[in-house]
């Protein structure tokens, strides 16, 4: 019960305004895709448009869906205005101000359409569908057609930019980006062509008096007084929205004046650099305003922890961390109150600190212009392999002989990893970290890691046979394998930068390797890896293990002889192939 409560609390702590805005944006973008695909049916015929709009409206006017949609629309617009007020600087990069301006312009373009179609139906029972709307676009006045075209492009570009900011750090984004780009171009293009083809058909049909009688009556379009009422509502909503935007701009000015009158504070970077800024700026905003390099992979969205700073001196006067900041710091296991997120900390007094991540490796806009191997979320399988008894080995041999044997051991392990699709990543003494899944899916990566562990056993057997004349006892080893979301990127300084993985999954794999010493087995595999690889659990003993650094125990599988893993993976692959054949 306590674990479930803690999980629930952590979930809600991770929710901030950006997360709410993201969910609302996804709902609205789903509507946009549905509406644009409906427009695209105009390339077939007006009958296809009419059939498509029936299913489109049936879904989006279903009461629970409609409540979610209109709530998302109001919240998203309101949060956009709040973002205009909240943003302190527009100098981060051009695409962010562009997204904000496009988002703020959407209500100005769409209010008249919503009032004329949706509110007209609700208040007066109007039946404005594609024939009536397209007639207004192509016959009633060209400005409406251009307004609709602008709305289509602006809304789609705004949504795509938001999706890009959300997906750019996901593991699949690089592989999926060509397909996403093609989709992003194709859908609005087909939608606009569908509107054009439908409009051409309406222009021809509208020359017929009977068509105009059936499609342009007061039942569809409403009476003049009804239209005047809708026009007044439209004007009132436009004035109200512009008033809210004006209030946000006025509030920005008042805040700026208040901050200047409230005094300035000094930020000292610990390297002799000092700047003076008004109270109220976050440390990251202050750095960017004064062109001081500051690491921030996510651009200040509290989605990473690369902007972390360590406060020098008394940190008792600092504002308490926001729930989002506390959530991110908790995710990286930071409990030191002197460590804060620069993008969230808004000091009210002079502050001295130093950055925990070098801005020369990861700058504040690295996600826009830096290397692609910085701060990317991936699902990877981590395998730690460690040589047993290397200390005793070194006591009885010359140093160069010991180095020779350790190198032969690491070469044998590396060969097993490479043969099975993995990548040797880090060498620490007589141990090695290997990564699987950099170019494969999760199931394949888990199977590759298990087959690599079996190959390690075979290669070490061969090495023991070759060196049996020089070894008093065979070389032994321990392997820990775990899978999960990690951050991969370039870590280091200047000429000493390496590509590696950081995260809880890597740490757990290391802990599992340590467990092989106490359990007296060759490998410990997490249940996550076994389930993802679809291995039968009956052949691998199950055990609950307490992992250092984790509050709850985790289920692991004990492997006495890693060579048996090859047969188990083979059985899983044959079962999967048989299932495909039966259902194929």
Topology:
Elements: H1 2-13, H2 17-40, H3 46-60, H4 63-86, H5 95-124, H6 130-140, H7 142-167, H8 173-205, H9 209-215, H10 218-221, H11 224-262, E1 264-268, E2 274-278, H12 283-289, E3 308-311, H13 323-331, E4 339-341, E5 351-355, H14 366-369, E6 376-388, H15 390-395, H16 399-419, E7 423-428, E8 431-436, H17 442-466, E9 476-493, E10 496-502, H18 504-519, E11 523-526, H19 527-533, E12 542-545, E13 554-559, H20 565-583
Parallel strand pairs: 1-5, 9-11
Antiparallel strand pairs: 1-2, 3-4, 3-5, 6-8, 6-9, 7-8, 9-10, 11-13, 12-13
Outline of this structure?
By secondary structure, the protein is of the alpha+beta class. It contains 20 helices and 13 strands.
Architecture overview:
This protein has 584 residues and is of the alpha+beta class. Helix content is 58%, strand content 15%. It folds into 3 domains: 16-255, no CATH class; 265-369, Ubiquitin-like (UB roll); 376-583, Nucleotide cyclase, GGDEF domain (Alpha-Beta Plaits, 2-Layer Sandwich). It has helices at 2-13, 17-40, 46-60, 63-86, 95-124, 130-140, 142-167, 173-205, 209-215, 218-221, 224-262, 283-289, 323-331, 366-369, 390-395, 399-419, 442-466, 504-519, 527-533, 565-583; strands at 264-268, 274-278, 308-311, 339-341, 351-355, 376-388, 423-428, 431-436, 476-493, 496-502, 523-526, 542-545, 554-559. Mean pLDDT is 83; it is low at 360-374.
Summed up, the helix count is 20
Q: Overall pLDDT, averaged?
A: 83
The value of Rg in angstroms is: 31 Å
Structural class of the secondary structure composition? alpha+beta
Tell me, what's the shape?
flat
Low-pLDDT segments: 360-374
Q: What is the count of structural domains?
A: 3
Largest sheet: 8 strands, mixed
Ends: how far apart?
44 Å
């Amino acid at each position: 019960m306590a674990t479930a409560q803690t999980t629930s609390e952590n979930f809600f702590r991770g929710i901030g305004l950006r997360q709410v805005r993201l969910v609302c944006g996804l709902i609205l973008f789903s509507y946009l895709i549905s509406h644009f695909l409906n427009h695209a049916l105009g390339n077939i015929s007006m009958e296809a448009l009419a059939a498509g709009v029936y299913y489109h409206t049936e879904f989006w006017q279903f009461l629970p869906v409609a409540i979610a949609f209109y709530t998302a629309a109001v919240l998203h617009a309101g949060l956009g205005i709040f973002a205009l007020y909240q943003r302190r600087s527009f100098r981060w990069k051009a695409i962010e101000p562009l997204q904000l301006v496009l988002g703020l312009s959407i209500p100005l373009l769409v209010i008249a359409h919503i009032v004329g179609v949706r509110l007209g139906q609700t208040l007066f029972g109007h039946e404005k569908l594609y024939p009536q709307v397209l007639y207004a676009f192509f016959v009633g006045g060209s400005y409406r057609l251009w307004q609709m075209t602008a709305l289509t492009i602006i809304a789609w570009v705004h949504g795509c930019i938001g999706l890009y900011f959300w997906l750019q750090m996901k593991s699949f984004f690089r592989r999926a980006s060509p397909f996403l780009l093609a989709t992003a171009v194709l859908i609005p293009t087909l939608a606009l062509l569908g509107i054009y083809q439908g409009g051409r058909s309406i222009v021809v049909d509208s020359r017929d008096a009977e068509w105009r009688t059936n499609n342009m009556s007061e039942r569809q379009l409403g009476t003049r007084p009804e239209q005047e009422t809708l026009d007044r509502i439209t004007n009132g909503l436009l004035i109200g929205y512009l008033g809210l935007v004006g209030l946000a701009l006025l509030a920005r000015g008042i805040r700026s004046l208040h901050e200047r009158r409230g005094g300035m504070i000094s930020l000292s970077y610990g390297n002799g650099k000092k700047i003076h800024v008004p109270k109220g700026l976050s440390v990251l905003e202050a750095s960017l305003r004064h062109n001081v390099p500051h690491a921030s992979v996510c651009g200040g969205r509290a989605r990473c922890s690369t902007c972390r700073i360590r406060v020098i001196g008394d940190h008792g006067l600092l504002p308490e961390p926001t729930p989002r900041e506390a959530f991110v710091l908790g995710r990286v296991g930071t409990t030191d109150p002197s460590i804060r997120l620069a993008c969230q900390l808004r000091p009210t007094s002079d502050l001295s600190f130093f950055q925990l991540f070098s801005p020369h490796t990861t700058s504040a806009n690295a996600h826009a212009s830096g290397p692609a191997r910085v701060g990317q979320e991936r699902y990877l399988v981590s395998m730690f392999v460690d040589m047993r008894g290397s200390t005793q080995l070194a006591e009885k041999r010359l140093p160069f002989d010991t180095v020779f044997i350790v190198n032969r051991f690491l070469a044998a392990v590396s060969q097993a990893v490479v043969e099975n699709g993995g990548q040797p990543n880090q060498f620490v003494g007589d141990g090695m970290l290997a990564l699987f899944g950099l170019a494969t899916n999760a199931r394949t990566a888990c199977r590759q890691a298990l087959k690599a562990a079996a190959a390690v056993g075979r290669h070490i057997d061969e090495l023991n046979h070759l060196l049996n004349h020089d070894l008093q006892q065979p070389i032994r080893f321990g392997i820990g394998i775990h899978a999960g979301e990690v951050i991969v990127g370039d870590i280091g300084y200047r000429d000493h930068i390496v590509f590696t993985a950081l995260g809880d999954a890597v740490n757990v794999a290391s802990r599992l390797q340590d467990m092989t010493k106490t359990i007296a087995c060759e490998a410990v595999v997490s249940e996550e890896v076994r389930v993802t690889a679809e291995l039968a659990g009956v052949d691998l003993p199950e055990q609950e293990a307490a992992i250092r650094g984790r509050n709850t125990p985790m289920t692991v599988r004990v492997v006495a002889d890693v060579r048996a893993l090859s047969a188990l993976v083979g059985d899983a692959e044959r079962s999967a192939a048989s299932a495909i054949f039966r259902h194929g």
